[in-house]
Amino acid sequence: FIMIIFAVLAVLLLATGHSQEADETITYTQCTDGYEWDPIMQRCKDIDECEIVHEACKGGMKCVNHFGGYLCLPRTAQIIVNNGQEETVSDTGSRNGNPIIRRTPPDRVPSQIQCAAGYEANEHNVCQDIDECTTSAHTCRSDQVCVNLRGSFTCQCRTG
């Protein structure tokens, strides 16, 4: 009698286990922000916000599509692509405010970065702003005041 109960339980477990397997394909059509569902490729693909968002970048900045979003870079920014990975980050588009143009691949030692114009690598290999006003690297006249900006400087008239 006990053997019959075990046999019935085994058949029920096998039947239950089999019925829980999905015979139909489960499709996901919800994508995270910055992506849209491609029904042909059956996957989420990046949205090119630069193409569809009117004036995505203001103030003369250029729009650069990026995975899941976009960056607003100065028109003079260089974009260097290495091994299919975008490695340019600008002062305005950076998540951490670190304007890196190029980083040496990690398999090369030492890893050294190339900073955007107006920035230099510090002892921690992080790009930091060059204060052109204190280093006399500016072109302001003697009757003007140098004002340091992130990555640049401006000359303003003295008051009076």
UniProtKB/TrEMBL annotation:
Superkingdom of origin: Eukaryota
Region span, Disordered: 85-105
The keyword Glycoprotein is annotated on this UniProt entry: no
CDD domains: EGF_CA
Pfam family, one: EGF_CA
InterPro entries according to UniProt: EGF, EGF-like_Ca-bd_dom, EGF-type_Asp/Asn_hydroxyl_site, EGF_Ca-bd_CS, Growth_fac_rcpt_cys_sf, Nephronectin_domain, NOTCH1_EGF-like
Keywords in alphabetical order: Disulfide bond, EGF-like domain, Repeat, Signal
SUPFAM superfamilies in the cross-refs: Growth factor receptor domain
Signal peptide (UniProt feature, chain positions): 1-19
UniProt feature, compositional bias: Polar residues: 85-97
Example of a GO MF term: calcium ion binding
Gene3D superfamilies reported in the protein's UniProt record: Laminin
Record-annotated EGF-like domain positions: 129-160
Protein name: EGF-like domain-containing protein
